[in-house]
């Protein structure tokens, strides 16, 4: 795990968001605002927002970071005000997971 914290291998973060009925566009705008803030943060390799074609209220964010530590550091850029403004747009608490690439690990 230390190599992910120190920058030896990139880490991925996948986040799932679900908008309340009638709040899809507002949530899309809020997520886009976070994207603009985080994609220029140190260590961010990629930050992509995707919207479900069949159910537009569902959004998935795909992030790639140089390290887990840099992602955690960049998360501090997202203010409490920004998070609090997003809460009334959500049907449920967002779900997020950290992932690592297993290519070349064998087994």
Per-chain topology:
Blueprint: H1 2-6, E1 11-18, H2 24-38, E2 44-51, E3 58-65, H3 68-75, H4 80-86, E4 95-99
Antiparallel strand pairs: 1-3, 1-4, 2-3
Short recap of the structure:
The chain has 107 residues and is of the alpha+beta class.
Describe the fold and architecture.
The protein is of the alpha+beta class and 107 residues long. The chain is built from four helices and four strands; from the N terminus they run αβαββααβ. The protein has a single domain (2-99), classed as Alpha-Beta Plaits (2-Layer Sandwich), CATH 3.30.70. The chain has a four-stranded antiparallel beta sheet. β2 and β3 form a beta hairpin. The radius of gyration is 15 Å and the shape is globular. The two termini are 18 Å apart.
When the domains are counted, the total is 1
Count of β-strands: 4
Largest sheet: 4 strands, antiparallel
Global Rg: 15 Å
**Overall pLDDT confidence:** 89
Shape: globular
Q: Give me the CATH architecture, please.
A: 2-Layer Sandwich
Class by SSE composition: alpha+beta
Number of helices, counting only DSSP H or I runs of 4 residues or more: 4
The portion of residues assigned to helices is: 25-40%
Residue fraction in strands = 25-35%
Q: Give the oligomeric state of the chains in this entry, treating copies of one chain as homo and distinct chains as hetero.
A: single chain
- Look up the CATH topology: Alpha-Beta Plaits
From the N-terminal CA to the C-terminal CA, the straight-line distance is: 18 Å
* Low-pLDDT segments, ≥5 res: 1-5
The side-by-side strand order for the widest beta sheet comes to 2-3-1-4
């Amino acid at each position: 795990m230390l190599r992910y914290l120190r920058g030896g291998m990139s880490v991925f973060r996948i986040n799932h968001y679900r908008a309340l009925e009638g709040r899809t566009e507002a949530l899309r705008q809020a997520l886009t605002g976070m994207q603009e803030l985080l994609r220029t943060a140190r260590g961010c390799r990629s930050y992509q927002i995707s919207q479900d074609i069949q159910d537009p209220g569902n959004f998935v964010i795909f992030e790639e970071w140089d390290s887990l530590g840099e992602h955690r550091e960049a998360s501090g850029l997202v203010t409490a005000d920004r998070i609090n403004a997003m809460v009334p747009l959500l049907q449920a608490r967002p779900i997020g997971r950290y992932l690592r690439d297993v290519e070349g690990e064998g087994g």
